[in-house]
Hints:
It is found in: Membrane. By secondary structure, the protein is α+β, with helices and mostly antiparallel strands.
Amino acid sequence: MMAELLKHPNVMKRVQQEVRTVVGNKSKVVIEDINKMDYLKCVVKETLRLHPAAPLLAPRRTSASVKLGGYDIPSDTTIIINGWAIHRDPKWWENPEGFIPERFEDSSNIDFQGQDFHFIPFGFGRRACPGMPFGVVTTEYVVANLLYWFDWKLPAGEIPEHLDMTELYCHVPQENTSSCYTSFEKLSEIQKFQKQG
């Protein structure tokens, strides 16, 4: 997620401004703050759309013969669903390769609970990921803290457009990059809270 934000500084600026406005001068980000961060939730959804943790969903087995998309699939066939490809299908997504969190602002009813079959980063049905609520809340909380306490930028000489976002495919996708990210603490604020503490 941080790599996408660094590649799209306008998105980084907007989400960071939202986080800092909601949290204000409090000593830490609290869960109640996260619930007020609508744009952060859009950024998380867009990141999960482009970079699902598990690009291929858990295998399923057909219980009866079925015809799907013009194909005859016999009973007792193992089916593997390519969530990564579904999330990038131009039939469902305008500019599917672009990182555009705003696409979820007007589509608040699109959710990853498994009811919208074109957005299934955690799977769907009985085999949906049981850790989904914990994973989403934890991600929102960690990213909100990173954006609240630190200002982020690419190393000197790096250009956002040249940031390589191709993924290495293994059990869990990861970026194929050796770039380092630089953060600058909001030292005055950290020192202020340390003195209070």
